[in-house]
Write a structure and sequence with these properties.
Number of strands: 13
Order of helices and strands: HHEHHEEHEHEEEEEHHEEHHEEH
Helix content: 25-40%
Distance between the termini: 85 Å
Largest sheet: 10 strands, mixed
Bound molecules: 2-acetamido-2-deoxy-6-O-sulfo-beta-D-glucopyranose
CATH topology: Spore Coat Polysaccharide Biosynthesis Protein SpsA, Chain A
Shape: globular
Structural class: alpha/beta
Number of domains: 1
Number of helices: 11
Oligomer: single chain
Amino acid sequence: MLCRPLRRKSRLLRINIALFCVFLVLLLYDALLGPYTAKNATFNQELNYTSAKIHQNQRLFALFWGNRERVYTPHALDQTQKIKFKHHSEICNVSREKLKGREEVHTQVLLFSELEQLFPGHHCGRFHPSHCQPSTRIAIIIPYRNREFHLKRLLLNLIPKLRRQLVDFTIYVIEQANEEAFNRGMMRNIGFLEAKKRFAYDCYVFNDVDTIIEDDRNLFKCGTHAARHLVSGVRRYNYSLPYRGLLGGIVAMTEKQMTALNGYSNMFFVWGGEDDNLYDRFMETNFWFERTDYQDGLVTTLTHRKDKKTVSRFRTIGKTKHSMLFDGISSVRYEVLYEEYKPLFTWIVVGVNKFLIEEEFELNVANTKQRISS
Ligand code: NGS
């Protein structure tokens, strides 16, 4: 009789002890493995939002609820709006003589902290010349994933050239978080929308992470009548272009031009085609693009292992005339998973859903076909 409640109690005690042990194991895992992974992340990869950026006390929570984190820098957006730069009456004037001209591409890979020391005076990704009033404010959008070496090299080479061009510029690094195939066109669309949300820039420059301008006379600016392609020759093609209609690498567009084209297609996953699709979009509108003069627009592209190409990209290009009406900035769906305002760039990590995007696209194609045939 007496034993029964005791046995129940001891069973309860055993469950409690077991739960406590599980808790201890989790604590140990967090204490031992947590710093290890975070440390590794710092050495190999500084931009690693899943392990390095999850704050220590959030890690246990992440263990239970998955590591999809929403860690916003508090009030960072307000801070960017609050930064006041002295207004100068004298408009910045860049004459060709004051620029350095063509330079050898620097190949070092510095830490972000070293880059920040090298280029002081940047706040939340923005630089504003200190002695004159820039005539234009531009957003530079860099689609990104797993290419930290390239990003560091690009910043090392691009920032000094832009500083000499005396423009007010803000760099946005748009990272696709998913394991899914990379979609450069969509990252460009998202970069445009996210930058526009923060400020109505006069000009949006889309710069691939592996494309480095060699000459500071290749001015980062937009044209009122035409968009601009800032690449006239690529080093690995012996400073020529593989074909005349190439629109890859670096493109500068105003909001008006971007909106008229409905931006880039969201349908080019993996590698290639989104720039050819952009070319076709120009053909369908009244807008056109011009190219930087040959001697100013030479670029070096950094090498990397190319992802497997998809055959479907040619099919998608063939549909541009109709699909550009529903496929682009008007239809891009994404979720901002993380954002951080670093001195040299604003880092925005986004999640996209390939399945939903493709499903919506096919549905729209079918609807269009039906409308045309009836
Ligand atoms: C074409 C791609 C473009 C790409 C261009 C240059 O074949 O997206 O090569 O490539 N078009 C298609 O795949 C349909 S590059 O020199 O960057 O290797 O921009």
